Amino acid sequence: MAKASVAAIILSGGKSERFGSNKGLYSYQGKPLMIRAIDIVDPISDRIIISIAPGQRKYYEPLVGKEYSIIEDEDAFEGPLSGLKTVLSVIDENITLLIPCDMPFLKTEFFTFLIERLEGHDACIPLINGYLEPIFSVYRTEPLHKAVSYEIGNGGRKLSGILRHLKVKSIDIREFESAGIDSSNFVNLNAPL
């Protein structure tokens, strides 16, 4: 069996209203959150795609250079489901991982852990405090693309809506902890520090 190819989508298309500025460009401990997200997924990704709001390319290109694909959402601030629809149309890799730009404490090992448990499923998703968290998860690309298209085609706007169309393996926080991946990984920044 051929080795799986992995595309990473870094989601940075939100309004950042609570945050007060563009999260992806915000520098945390001397490094922009977007670069921190790239550093997390780069060791395990064949391709990295940055999903941003329309009109934001001019801010991101100087930051990340030409090495990574930058794709602007077709519609501004319609949520990650809308951004995913645009990005998935250009992905050839058979596994897609999602990471929001505002989770600088995630570790590469977190995504490796999910990929290793994807066998026989369409998605491997953390279950944190009783809630599935599809925004930092791993998917088989083809079923993900179909689920996103179906959900949007039927008026869905929430990322969680795709889960009912996928064979999901949920990973409880205790499983992560037993693998040395503690809950500090799952903190996102909603305000500048």
What would you say this structure looks like, in words?
By secondary structure, the protein is an alpha/beta fold. It has a single domain, classed as Spore Coat Polysaccharide Biosynthesis Protein SpsA, Chain A, CATH 3.90.550.10. The protein is built from 6 helices and 10 strands; from the N terminus they run E-E-E-H-E-H-E-H-E-H-E-E-E-H-E-H. The protein has helices at residues 33-41, 57-64, 80-88, 108-116, 141-153, 173-178; strands at 6-12, 27-28, 31-32, 47-52, 69-72, 95-100, 123-128, 131-132, 138-140, 168-172. The strands form 2 sheets. Strands 1, 4, 5, 6, 7, 8, 9 and 10 form an 8-stranded mixed sheet that branches. Strands 2-3 form a two-stranded antiparallel sheet. Strand 2 and strand 3 (31-32) form a beta hairpin. Helix 3 (80-88) packs across helix 5. The radius of gyration is 16 Å and the shape is globular. The chain starts with 5 loop residues before the first strand and ends in a 15-residue tail after the last helix. 37% of the residues are buried. The mean pLDDT is 89.
